[in-house]
Design goal:
The protein is α/β, with parallel strands linked by helices and 352 residues long. The protein has twelve helices and 14 strands. A seven-stranded parallel sheet has the order 3-2-1-4-5-8-12, with helices on both faces. The chain has a three-stranded mixed sheet with strand order 9-11-13. Helix 6 packs parallel to helix 7.
Length: 352
Amino acid sequence: MKVCIITGAGGLIGAEAVRFFARQGFLTIGIDNNMRQYFFGDEASTAWAIQGLQAAIPDFRHYTADVRDFEAVRRVFAEYGSNIQLVIHTAAQPSHDWAAREPLTDFGVNAQGTLNLLQCTREVSPEAVFIFTSTNKVYGDIPNTLPLVELDTRWEIEPGHPYANGITEDMSIDQCTHSIFGVSKAAADLMVQEYGRYFGMRTACFRGGCLTGPGHSGAELHGFLAYLMKCCSQGRPYQIFGYKGKQVRDNIHSHDLIQAFHAFYQNPRSGEVYNIGGGRQSNCSMREAITLCEAISGKKMETIYHDENRIGDHIWWIGSLAKFQSHYPEWKITYSVERILTEIHQANIERK
């Protein structure tokens, strides 16, 4: 029996991981106490996703343990012991703004929770592969110091710059403003690296851009494309914070991200760090995303603009995929932004 433990199993990436690795013959174990509902309200609840997984995958096992509770997490690990071959840690408090409201909760979930999972893996099944969904926010606001050019619908980096094909992992994460969320994720990211480098465990940090897809319980404080399309479809006003709405994000569909996880699992390394996202193949500004939403849904969006940007927010983020693709050359991006938004729109219609 080979076991895969997935935290945040009801979330966008967690649920995608459960479905995929169950098809690969793993006994999938989900840990999720639906804190997303606590963070962002009832519309962000992941209970529907857990119920869907239980209905679709008969041997899926779900535990409501809180990742901050070391003993509760350790009991789950102890139940499966050395059969655990893979741990995918996606549970997190994912919002800039929310983190500033409750820094202790944010740091507890993101940093202490990650340490708890690493230590449980080390004690119970040290040969398991450990994959962590980190974030590009570990780089803080350093990307905002890049030479950017304002175009009609987006900000863009100067042509010929070393990061023209995307920001690489050599960018510093030090001496900058991160947001409270960015710091808690950076602490977790460094600990995942350290358990790989110091203890020799097979760990990887995937520093994601915008992770997206139809399984996202999008809310105002988290879930850019999913929430944007929800607002467009339902006639809700959408708030834009700063940068003239021209801020750029790369976007990776949950399917493509899980394929990257699988590639790493098949040929793991120790203490690795990868920028992962849509790269140059799948990116958009907020203005461009709004235009696409309107075209796909056939509805005009109402937007509210605020001059003040969120603290530590990026003006332009496109991550380089070169390092990951050099290690795993068969992996590639398959979803464009337009295809992602079309799929999200269809999923919204089906859920009505």
